[in-house]
Design goal:
Two copies of one chain form a homodimer. Chain A is an alpha+beta fold. The first copy, chain A, has helices spanning 55-63, 111-116, 118-121, 125-147, 186-196, 232-253, 255-260, 266-269, 280-289, 302-309, 364-373, 382-389, 402-410, and strands spanning 3-4, 16-29, 32-38, 43-49, 69-78, 86-97, 151-152, 158-159, 171-174, 177-181, 198-206, 219-228, 277-279, 316-319, 332-333, 336-340, 342-347, 352-360, 395-401. Chain A folds into two domains: 3-97, OB fold (Dihydrolipoamide Acetyltransferase, E2P), CATH 2.40.50.140; 118-417, BirA Bifunctional Protein, domain 2 (2-Layer Sandwich), CATH 3.30.930.10. Chain A is built from 13 helices and 19 strands. In chain A, the strands form four sheets. Chain A has an eight-stranded mixed beta sheet with strand order 7-11-12-19-18-17-14-13, with helices on both faces. A five-stranded mixed beta barrel of chain A has the order 2-3-4-6-5.
């Protein structure tokens, strides 16, 4: 008698099989019990008819509580009325453990309580669906880049230099030296791109920002492609193909999950290249028309991003930002050096920035000047300057925050639900 | 005229194309120059005949130094004498940047010097090959587990509890609380396995160990599968299939890289299930026969592992370790509770441990006792104990160190070469 997973039930119709899982929910009426059994791959209805099983099997069914673990044997039946389309006609039922007073009852709980029980909350259908979408987003990212000839080259997490000031960095003692948790693998990516042409890194990144918004986590995952000889135009085309591939792959592979999340997928169907583009100056006009007071040179906040993104049915690129509100390494526009060849990609439906990217400065003297202007510790950047000394070439790259993309695709407001164990301000348990 | 990558040359025979890259090496004899051009995907020989190009193109060729960046246009020719089998008959050549005094000359350098220039060293053929193998190992890990229905569920890096003592942990301030960089995602994996059945996490892990051996890094990547309802036997079978898949996938996909590394692949061809198994007690006998003085209950060090692994032509499992030399969460053997259902997998050819795995304790009272015996802070483990309160089931998992596997497959002694930017004792630059 094979042990099978719920997701395989369709291949075992009319066969006797064993499923090992947990009780998700149940109902009964006299001589018949309906057990909803989850095993991590899906939920199947196991049906116990009192006349057809030994008394103790029926008794076991009655004893089962929510999240009790069980091993159930029976015949798979196709039944269109059953949730999922298949059910199991029970012959035998073993209790592994009775769960007493499972804390997450099928009723409303506060978010604080659920976060405190995140290790159990993961078992609920909704969280389950979100994290399956997350896994598919990550798989799609890798598949796309691998297919396009990008090589995975991992960037280090422990870094010596504080790229953009230390105020938002987690610091640790590294055998007597100060080290910081990486906020981005980009600088290392640039070294790798000069060796391998097209590369990406993908790992956790950290930001010790004392902010408590729905769009920030202290620990989040970022995928960062970087390519030698890529112009700003090449970069934008890569970004729109990449994002479209990811969205369409989730729409195709995660129908059931998106249905559980009650996600209207029609806006997602729009996500196909090309994406609209506006310059920073055009964005400023739009914001002014909507009564926002913002000056040329200011960066946009979450509210501005939302407002801009609402004007378009697809993700929109905002390009050519003022140099002064962007990072030191971004390439100035040769036609107008006060703006840089950088773009943010804003997701629609209020989700805002999901990607930031730019062409990088490849001229040694200019990069040295920018490092000095930004009061960065020159010594820590010597290796990075070497990339402009030895065969420097134009190159470009971007970083995409996984959690923001998952939140957008799932239609979920708060990032805390789209990572298995969120790290937020004052939240590091479990 | 298409821009192409060297790896695509075979598809453009007799066509005019442009390749953008760097000068790897060159030689010339009078009227002819042979430029070895690398672009990250491979190396192609670009041939300049003086009579067939404008004088300035030939002049450019002469000016090029090692690692200068260039854009070269010409016709692809199949030529079995050329390295790689194709060459480019040059029509035009643009210099992007002349690299002056590239520090890594084609001669022997000390390891310290090379590590200091790791950002450039990555460009050399050998490092290139190693990191391509690394990317393939990681891809194979994910492909295998995805195909087998394991779901990627990321474990957090910042963790509150110090699982196995704080002496080897990197610590950071988390808004007034102490937090530690994760040494393993396992405990979180166990929560995820109870939600999703079969899961894995894959990310960087950290060990602040003041040791300077060829087999340790402070920051390394680990892949950790965990499965509900998996017995110790299921686990071992998963491990041998997983490792065999990875090795055979690299042998098939990275022929060229393994050739550059002069790796004898015949020992790798052996890596097919089943793997031999010996118990800890049998291992002790072997060690005693070889004159090692080691007592029952002691853990094995690198030397012992090497000696044991040398006895077998394939990776070998050592099973049933004394409970006292293993972690608190490991399931005792029901037939002999002083040993645990744990195994280490030792790679042959002197590479030693690549995997550690075990069945986990699923009984609440036993786990509570083990936490107390190990003087662990009970409070930090309450959520972990919850997994034994609410539908506890037998479950098993393992962790595999990516760098150790890459080193073994590449036939490289020291882990510092198998990660792009190694973090070692007193080495955190670049």
């Amino acid at each position: 008698m094979p042990n099978i997973y719920v997701s395989e039930a369709s291949a075992y119709v009319d066969q006797e099989t064993t499923i090992r899982g947990w009780l998700y929910n149940k109902r009964s009426s006299g001589k018949i019990q309906f057990l909803l059994v989850r095993d991590g791959t899906g939920i199947i209805q196991a049906v116990i008819f009192k006349p057809e099983v030994p008394a103790e099997v029926f008794q076991h069914g009655e004893e089962l509580t929510q999240e009790s673990s069980l091993v159930v044997t029976g015949t798979v039946r196709k039944d269109d009325r059953a949730p999922g389309g298949y059910e199991l006609l029970v012959k035998d039922l073993q209790i592994v453990q009775i769960a007493q007073d499972y804390p997450i009852a099928p009723k409303e709980h506060g978010v604080g309580f659920l976060m405190e029980h995140r290790h159990l909350w993961l078992r609920s259908s909704r969280q389950h669906a979100v994290l399956r979408v997350r896994a598919q987003v990550i798989k799609a990212c890798r598949d796309y880049l691998d297919q396009q000839g990008f090589l995975l080259v991992d960037a280090p997490i422990l870094t010596p230099a504080a790229c953009e000031g230390t105020s938002t960095l987690f610091e640790t003692d590294y055998f007597g030296e100060k080290a910081y948790l990486s906020q981005s693998g980009q600088l290392y990516n640039e070294a790798a791109a000069m060796a391998f042409g097209k590369v990406y890194c993908f790992g956790p990144t950290f930001r010790a920002e004392k902010s408590k918004t729905r769009r920030h986590l202290m620990e989040f995952w970022m995928i960062e492609p970087e390519a030698a000889y890529y112009t700003f135009e090449d970069l934008i085309q890569l970004e729109e193909s990449f994002v479209s591939y990811i969205v369409q792959s989730v729409v195709a592979q995660c129908r059931e999950e998106l249905a559980i999340l009650e996600r209207d997928t029609s806006p997602l169907a729009n996500v196909q290249p090309p994406f609209p583009r506006i310059t920073y100056d055009q964005a400023l006009d739009i914001l002014h028309q909507h009564g926002k007071e913002i000056n040329w040179g200011d960066d946009f906040g979450g509210d501005e991003e939302t407002l801009l993104a609402e004007q378009f049915p697809k993700p929109v690129f905002v390009t050519h930002y003022p140099a002064r509100c962007k990072a030191f390494y971004m390439q100035p526009d040769p036609d107008r050096p006060q703006v840089v060849l950088a773009s943010d990609l804003l997701a629609p439906e209020g989700y805002g920035e999901i990607i930031g990217g730019s062409q990088r400065i490849h001229d040694l003297a200019l990069l040295e000047r920018r490092i000095a202007e930004n009061n960065l510790p020159r010594e820590a950047f010597e290796w990075y300057l070497d990339l402009r000394r030895y065969g420097s070439v134009p190159h470009s790259g971007f970083g995409m925050g996984i959690e923001r993309v998952v939140a957008w695709i799932c239609g979920i407001d708060h990032l805390r639900e789209v990572i298995p164990f969120p790290r937020m301000l004052y939240r590091i348990y479990p």
